[in-house]
Design brief:
3 helices, 2% helix, mainly beta, flat
């Protein structure tokens, strides 16, 4: 037996005490403890007084010995030998007078913070009898029953005199006097009660009327597409009822299974399975060892080791003579039934039911990929041969809105269209080289229209929409850009290390011809940067689609497609170099040079350096004071001042900061330093926290709060800049449990006392000089 300790309920205490209270004569004296610390049962704290450790609810100021369970914002707690329940605010929901309490809650699907509960009840036990209290603290039934179980939000089952009945969960009124061997929640029909009599199952309505007499071994949910039935087992045989209890299929089979068709069910009889047609009330197919769910009218059926295809009317579309059959749509997605089917448990009690999730929309036409004797082929949905089962491997591709088949004959493959017509000969070979040297990712057009071809470590392209080879299989490196253009590089002569590159449009027409030792980077649909090297120096020029030079500059350094200022980009955004807000940045001897599409130079004369623009914003830099004669750009870092401007040169964020840093996990904010102090701004130029702090620390465990440091004192602020706890404390402690709670707490230390502050910045009315555990 637990030693009775003590309970303190401070009804006269205000649950919060303002840090800035002015009327000290009215202030509540702090509650003192020998030691306080965080606990693993948030929001409760661990406290020690007179050598005894207990849990303290920080708002209700309830002291308890143990916290047994928690659910739905309720806490099952113990004081001495007495059990009770507190809510999240620390209010007493069930008094501390019970021998046991048990939280009974229910919600749909997977739990998440703030999920709505279907019900929240508390089962109470006193002197061997059971009662019920609701989440508001109302006693629905005093502890007077032999046993209690929750049915749903409206009904509660109870046992009295060895028999079960049920009562109204709102007021405790008896709806069904005790009569049955068992009464429990039914998962078959909402609001129904599963009843048992003489070890047989049935269903009753909430008002006590019997819907299905208790004469079955067990009942289970049974779903057909658009229809609910009830599976039953009786004397070892399976049958079906409708939801009104009317017989649909008398018990005559060993097992039944929904199979994805509204008119038929699969039955098991002996070692075989077959189909029973519900409307026709007859067996339409039997003699198979397995039948899969129907998909768009067809089902894969097995007899022995052979696979075939059957239909719901019993028609055998394909005889079971294949080694394997797979249903796919035009995109190569595996076809499966989206019907929910829960069948009876297999004999022995294990569940044989299954539930399948809805799949993405299928695209016609549908195909059957078949294997026979180790060879693969393709049939259409009616069973007609598209490609005979004569090939080593077949891969389905979907391009230009149509299916294609990459068909392998020994080590070479050819290309067939969706009707089975061969359109490219068997002269291509799969090569891992393709994955390392072909990059269509930047172009949706390429991924939708183009089929890459490989042979002898060379790459070519077939345009499905135009039904032609747009790039011969002669290239070592092929890259699509975001303007649906393709850069293709090939060797010059056999065994040569020299190469030449051309740029094509999306239909295979030249934009720029093959040139030796040159690369092309498209920066707009009609603007290309040509890059090459002369005597170890990079040279670039901007040309139009016809090759006319738009801009050249000998001071233009190496141009790389991935050279883009990253600081202002959203999270996980990757941009290639190009025109932004009508300007292309020229990197090289100058760091403040841009050109427009006509090659006209633009400098932002008020700034020393301007980065790439994104969403009409760029990071810019000025010198706080002019450079001295012996100072260089690299040696004058301490004079640099950063800010943000727009493409018109207007200041978006003043250029007053020595440093600007991205904040991990918070892509919309920047951490900035001014005069050696830190602040926080948005990437759009709004100041969230003025630069007045020695440091600002963001925690990955906190989604809302930041730790601020000023004059070696600590405080807490919201991420929106709202000051919660001023930086006046020697220490501030948090824990991950607190950060995840609905009402986070912060432990503060002023050099003498440890106290707690809530998320509103209000000081709570208890303190200690010792941090528990330290």
């Amino acid at each position: 037996m637990r030693t009775i300790l003590f309970t303190l309920i401070y009804f006269l205490f205000s649950p919060h005490h303002s840090l800035f209270a002015q009327n000290n004569s009215q202030a509540t004296p702090p509650l003192l403890f020998d030691a306080i610390g965080f606990s693993d049962r948030s929001p409760f704290l661990k406290v020690r007084k007179d050598g005894v450790e207990q849990y303290l609810h920080p708002y209700g100021l309830q002291l308890v010995d143990e916290i047994e369970e928690s659910s739905g914002g309720l806490f099952e707690v113990v004081v001495g030998d007495a059990y009770g329940v507190l809510d999240a605010a620390g209010n007493v929901v069930a008094d501390f007078k019970y021998d046991e309490v048990s939280l009974q809650t229910d919600y749909d699907n997977q739990w998440y913070a703030g999920i709505p509960y279907n019900y929240r009840f508390i089962l109470t036990k006193l002197d061997g009898r059971y009662g019920v209290v609701d989440a508001a603290g109302n006693e629905i039934a005093p502890p007077q029953y032999e046993e209690i179980t929750i049915i749903d939000s409206l009904s509660i089952a109870f046992r009295q005199g060895g028999k079960w009945g049920w009562l109204d969960a709102r007021n405790g009124e008896i709806l069904q006097p005790p009569h049955y061997e068992r009464a429990t929640r039914s998962y078959l029909l909402p609001g129904a009660v599963e009843i048992q009599q003489d070890d047989k199952e049935g269903l009753a309505l909430r008002d006590g009327r019997v819907l299905i007499a208790p004469e079955y071994d067990y009942l289970r949910d049974f779903r057909l597409p658009g229809k609910q039935l009830i599976f039953f087992s009786k004397a070892g045989q399976a049958g079906l009822l409708d939801t009104a209890g009317k017989m649909v299929l008398p018990a005559q089979f060993e097992n039944l299974d929904a199979i994805g068709d509204p008119n038929v069910v699969k039955f098991k009889k002996g070692d075989g399975v077959g189909l029973w047609h519900i409307k026709e009330a007859r067996v339409v197919l039997e003699g198979f060892t397995g039948i899969d769910d129907f998909v768009v009218g067809n089902s894969i059926a097995r007899r022995g080791q052979g696979y075939g295809v059957v239909q719901a009317n019993g028609n055998v579309l394909l005889r079971p003579e294949y080694d394997r059959i797979v249903f796919v749509d035009a995109k190569g997605h595996y076809l499966s039934s989206n019907a929910v089917s829960i069948a009876m448990p297999a004999m022995g009690g294990s569940s044989a039911g299954k539930q399948q999730s809805a799949v993405p929309d299928f695209v016609e036409p549908y195909f059957m990929m078949v294997t026979k004797g180790g060879k693969q082929g393709v049939l259409d949905w009616s069973g007609n041969v598209v490609i005979p089962a004569e090939y080593r491997y077949i891969e389905l591709l979907f391009k230009a809105g149509k299916p294609y088949f990459q068909v392998y004959q020994q080590e070479r493959y050819g290309l067939f269209n969706g009707a089975g017509k061969q359109i490219l000969p068997f002269e291509y070979a799969y090569d891992e080289y393709l994955g390392m040297n072909y990059y269509p990712q930047s172009s949706d057009y390429a991924q939708n229209q183009i089929i890459p071809l490989t042979k002898d470590n060379r790459i070519g392209l077939y345009h499905a929409g135009l039904a032609k080879i747009m790039l011969p299989v002669a290239h070592e490196y092929v890259v699509w850009n975001g303007f649906d253009q393709v850069s293709a590089r090939r060797s010059i002569g056999a065994g040569s290390y020299n190469s030449e590159t051309a740029l094509y449009d999306g239909e295979g027409h030249f934009i720029r011809p093959y040139e030796e030792s040159i690369s092309y980077v498209a920066v707009a649909a009609d603007r290309i940067v040509e890059t090459w090297m002369v005597d170890g120096q990079w040279r670039n020029r901007l040309v139009d689609a016809a090759g006319k030079t738009i801009y050249e500059n000998n001071g233009w350094g190496e141009f790389r497609s991935n050279s883009v200022t990253q600081l202002l980009l959203p999270k996980d955004t990757i941009l290639d170099a190009g025109y932004r807000n009508g300007l292309l940045k020229i990197r090289g001897n100058e760091d403040n040079l841009f050109i427009d599409k006509d090659g006209v130079e633009k400098r932002f004369s008020d700034y020393e350096s301007v980065g790439d623009f994104y969403d009409d914003r760029a990071v810019a830099m000025v010198y706080e004071t002019p450079l001295e004669a012996d100072e260089t750009i690299g040696s004058a870092r301490d004079k640099e001042r950063l800010g943000i401007i727009n493409s018109r040169g207007e200041v978006v964020l003043p250029l007053v900061y020595e440093r600007m840093e991205a904040i991990y996990g918070i892509p919309e904010l920047l951490k900035v330093m001014q005069n050696g102090k830190w602040g926080v701004v948005t990437k759009k130029g709004a100041v969230i926290m003025e630069a007045t702090y020695d440091d600002i620390r963001f925690s990955s465990s906190s989604k809302a709060f930041v730790n601020i440091i000023k004059n070696e004192k600590q405080g807490i602020a919201n991420r929106d800049g709202t000051l919660l706890v001023p930086p006046v404390y020697e220490q501030i402690h948090t824990d991950n449990n607190s950060f995840g709670a609905e009402v986070p707490l912060f432990m503060v230390f002023d050099g003498e006392w440890y106290q707690f502050v809530d998320e509103k910045g209000e000081l709570l009315t208890f303190r200690t000089k010792t941090r528990l555990g330290y």
